[in-house]
Amino acid sequence: MAVDSKYDVFTYPTTNPESGAGHPGHTTPEQDELVAQLRKELEADGFTDRLDTLTLLRFLRARKFDVALAKKMYTDCETWRKEFKVDDLVKDFTFVEKPQVFEYYPQYYHKIDKDGRPVYIEKLGKINLTTIKTITTEERLIQNLVVEYERLANPRLPACSRKADKLLETSCTIMDIGGVGIQSMYSATEFLKKVSAISQNYYPERLGKLYIINAPWTFSTIWNGIKVFLDPVTVSKIRILKGPSEYEAVLKEQIPAENLPKEFGGLCECQGGCQLADAGPWNDPQYMEPAVPAATTTAAPAEVTENQI
């Protein structure tokens, strides 16, 4: 990978032999030049954080290596981070109401797939925003989502990269839509639009695979109409699966049975429930190093900020 000594200081692998074109270690000289150009323009505008090559490549890939579009995406993201006070949230936010909220909207990371990526599970079928709002606020729901995105970037992905001995930048997602009712989805539409926008606009290139399970037969028709508007690369990452007889075998092809919760056909039964366990390499001491050194002793600036987007 073409590196910049000022920003590219990491404590985990930075290349993956299985990654595709445009990923770290798999770029052309022209793409390396675009990374340098984007960094130079952002520095000229006064930006100093999150200018490492891994981050800039994600923004460039998200915008097909169009520097102007990637720059706008990055600057919009930095503006949002400041307005939303993301760095303060990461330090101070505690979602104490999680057990109660997860009774109605479980969304959690749980162990890893066969590629070493964090597995993210979300059960939309249980969402009841009206009840949830008696437990917490929509603002705190979104704050928790943002904090979890930040924790995906650090410590989850660095820990998984160390364990796998290769760079991992994405997650494997299971989205259970079984039991989704028209009324519950209608009431949650605006909330889901907000969280979807945060994911797409501010955390690009984080989707590895997405399994939508327990899909009713009508969903396939809806999906066929939606996917024509999506990037073919995104579509290739998504599989629509029906009930357990269809999805259990497919999930176990990607996720070890011992890592897959029993409710999805796996063998895992964490004490206290998988959805609250936060089990994974990110909680294993041998993989829990800082994502970057606290300081460097080279001629570069002492502070080197790791990608937390």
From TrEMBL:
InterPro entries for the chain: CRAL-TRIO_dom, CRAL-TRIO_dom_sf, CRAL/TRIO_N_dom, CRAL/TRIO_N_dom_sf, PI/PC_transfer
SMART domains, alphabetized: CRAL_TRIO_N (SM01100), SEC14 (SM00516)
Short name of any one Pfam family annotated for the protein: CRAL_TRIO
Domain CRAL-TRIO: 97-272
Gene3D superfamilies: CRAL-TRIO lipid binding domain (3.40.525.10), N-terminal domain of phosphatidylinositol transfer protein sec14p (1.10.8.20)
Protein name: Similar to Sec14 cytosolic factor acc. no. Q10137
